[in-house]
């Protein structure tokens, strides 16, 4: 039985991956009086008198909403709110297992930006943080931006979780290749949510915008490209990358590159392209389930380090390395948002947790110390930024 069939059988057997368990037993009349009426009225009064007491008397201090509208689910695309539920359940299970965080999956049956923003704002009193998941670009950018005034951390994990782990892996990869972030040429295949966040975080970490090139289905993104006038997100990327407005296709961009970051589609990177890169090329081929190039093919073409999004190859770039610890730290420090400094701190913490070699640039997801170390780094960064 393959992993797909085994997973399907498991989901059917369990009826989903989550259940709700009470922290208290309701066995006696007094138990009911304490948990519900009349006793529950007192914490309600305290919270009404001082809204901050909600963190003292309710689940809010340790509770995150995992919210999606199902428009960009894994490698499946726009499959809608109902079909997205298994993924949101899985994300909630990871939050609990790795971060000790109570997470609720919420799927909104709407692609309208205003409806999504309004819905999330209306339910936000329940939660200490919001994890946006599987929202398609460019709508995801506006939705996330419009939720930053909630007073609780809001993060679109497909963007920032990916960016944190990519940066962590690159910190170790560049060290092994004896290169420097400010000097390397980076080519990004894809210009969606993850590619945008990765690019911005790399620039924040000292990458040189002159040496970063993003490619979409029409080729290299440059500021004067006419079709970008209809895509605000890509136009913004064109302002901060490829500062000399070079033109061409992916095969042109990758000549003399040090790093390839794939956040696009399978089979877009060829052996011939890798052979045109600088010595010790670093390949992050993260399209799922099939990468832009298979690791063995990349190695045969001379790749020094190869990372993918898959667990059956070395160097898996897995968002789960980041988001449990990021939210654990944000909740514990009562951060009102997640800053770029917190993301960089999380990436550096991840990178420091492994003695790197070419097949070991990131810690294993099974390492239970990861969320703790990331959380501490995130809290330090928040305190320093205040």
Q: Would you kindly provide a written description of the structure presented here, covering whatever features stand out?
A:
This protein has helices at 3-14, 29-35, 41-49, 54-57, 80-99, 113-123, 139-146, 157-176, 193-204, 232-240, 250-253, 271-275, 295-300, 323-332, 340-351, 370-385; strands at residues 63-68, 102-107, 129-132, 154-156, 186-189, 212-216, 219-220, 259-262, 282-285, 305-308. It is of the alpha/beta class and 386 residues long. The strands form 2 sheets. The chain has a 6-stranded mixed sheet.
Distance between the termini: 53 Å
SS elements, strand count: 10
Structural class: alpha/beta
Proportion of helical residues: 40-55%
The CATH homologous superfamily of the largest domain is termed NAD(P)-binding Rossmann-like Domain
Low-confidence stretches: none
Kindly estimate the percentage of residues that lie in beta strands according to DSSP.
5-15%
Strand order of the largest sheet: 7-6-5-8-9-10
Task: Report the biggest beta sheet as strand number plus sense, adding barrel if it closes.
Answer: 6 strands, mixed
Rg result: 22 Å
Compact description:
The chain is an alpha/beta fold and 386 residues long. The protein has helices at residues 3-14, 29-35, 41-49, 54-57, 80-99, 113-123, 139-146, 157-176, 193-204, 232-240, 250-253, 271-275, 295-300, 323-332, 340-351, 370-385; strands at residues 63-68, 102-107, 129-132, 154-156, 186-189, 212-216, 219-220, 259-262, 282-285, 305-308. Helix content is 43%, strand content 11%.
């Amino acid at each position: 039985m393959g992993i797909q069939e085994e997973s399907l059988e498991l989901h059917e057997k369990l009826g989903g991956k989550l259940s709700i368990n009470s922290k208290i037993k309701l066995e006696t009349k007094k138990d009911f009086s304490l948990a519900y009426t009349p006793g529950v009225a007192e914490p309600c009064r305290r919270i009404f008198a001082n809204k901050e007491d909600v963190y003292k008397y309710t689940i809010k201090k340790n509770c995150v909403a995992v919210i999606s509208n199902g428009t960009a689910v894994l490698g499946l695309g726009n499959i809608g709110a109902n079909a997205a539920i298994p993924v949101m359940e899985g994300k909630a299970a990871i939050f609990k297992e790795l971060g000790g965080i109570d997470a609720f999956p919420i799927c909104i049956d709407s692609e309208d930006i205003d409806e999504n923003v309004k819905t999330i704002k209306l339910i936000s009193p329940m939660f200490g943080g919001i994890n946006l998941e599987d929202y398609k670009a460019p709508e995801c950018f506006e939705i996330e931006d419009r939720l930053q005034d909630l007073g609780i951390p809001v993060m679109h994990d497909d963007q920032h979780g990916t960016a944190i782990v990519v940066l962590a892996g690159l910190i170790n990869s560049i060290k092994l290749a004896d290169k420097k972030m400010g000097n390397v040429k980076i080519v990004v295949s894809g210009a969606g949510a993850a590619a945008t966040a990765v690019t911005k975080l790399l620039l924040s970490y000292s990458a040189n915008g002159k040496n970063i090139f993003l490619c979409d289905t029409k080729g290299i993104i440059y500021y004067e490209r006419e079709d970008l006038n209809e895509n605000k997100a890509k136009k913004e990327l064109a302002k901060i990358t490829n500062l000399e407005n070079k033109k061409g296709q992916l095969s042109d961009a990758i000549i003399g590159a040090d790093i390839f970051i794939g956040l696009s589609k399978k089979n877009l990177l060829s052996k011939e392209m890798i052979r045109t890169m600088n010595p010790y090329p670093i390949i992050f081929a993260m399209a799922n389930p099939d990468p832009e190039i298979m690791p063995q093919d990349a190695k045969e073409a001379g790749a020094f380090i190869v990372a993918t999004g898959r667990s059956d190859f070395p160097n898996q770039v897995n968002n789960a390395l980041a988001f449990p610890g990021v939210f654990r730290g944000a909740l514990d420090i009562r951060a009102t948002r997640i800053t770029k400094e917190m993301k960089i701190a999380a990436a550096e913490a991840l990178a420091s947790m492994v003695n790197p070699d070419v097949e070991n640039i990131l810690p294993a997801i099974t390492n239970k110390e990861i969320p703790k170390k990331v959380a501490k780094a995130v809290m330090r960064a928040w305190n320093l930024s205040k």
